[in-house]
Amino acid sequence: MKVLVILGSRNPEGQTARAAAALAMGAQAEGAEVEQVFLPTLRIERCRQCDENGWGTCLSQGECEIADDQAGLVAKLRAADAGVFATPVYFADLSESLKAFLDRLRRTCLHEAGKAGIAGKPAVGVCVAGGRGGGGPACAATLERVLQTCGFDLRDVVPVRRQNLEMKLAVLTHTGKWLAAG
Length: 182
Ligand SMILES: Cc1cc2nc3c(=O)[nH]c(=O)nc-3n(C[C@H](O)[C@H](O)[C@H](O)COP(=O)(O)O)c2cc1C
Fold this sequence. Notes:
Blueprint: E1 2-7, H1 15-29, E2 33-38, H2 57-61, H3 70-79, E3 82-88, H4 96-108, H5 112-115, E4 122-129, H6 136-150, E5 153-161, H7 165-181
Parallel strand pairs: 1-2, 1-3, 3-4, 4-5
Helix pairs in contact: 1-7, 4-6
Bound molecules: flavin mononucleotide.
Flavin mononucleotide is lined by residues 9, 11, 14-17, 88-92, 128-135.
């Protein structure tokens, strides 16, 4: 099984990366192949709301017309058997990089061509509130909604706060094993 882990953090040594690595370790223990992508290293623009109604080729063709790294990452996601979406909690919400990616993905998933290889794919979300620790559940609710709009088979969203990170690492490793075990 191939698991693609998409991180909305720019810090490979940070708390979101630690949480994602714990989940990846569990998945690998079940024989999964794991690839990680840090979104801020890619060029992914925010949606341009192309026409006067706010739609564009997302609605008519199931693909976004912006020529940046979005399409390549969506292709990687299609090729994976499961997706993991890990974000630092910013203002009790997703990080800007994950929000930009998922805002555009959910639009294309309204079209049959766009939802191919995405709808029904198992997914897990991870939200890491690494500051004062608040906002994880609110962020998790937003992540749940957007992943469901994309059509993923959302298996779980795990809120984490700085104060319980060590305990949640063990939960995430079990979650990764469980995800990879199907
Ligand atoms: C713009 C911004 C907003 C933030 N909002 C919150 C928040 O609502 N709750 C919280 O606990 N931490 C908040 N933080 C702290 C981040 O959650 C913390 O820096 C993050 O977990 C670090 O992740 P990383 O180590 O993966 O970079 C915020 C940080 C930034 C930069």
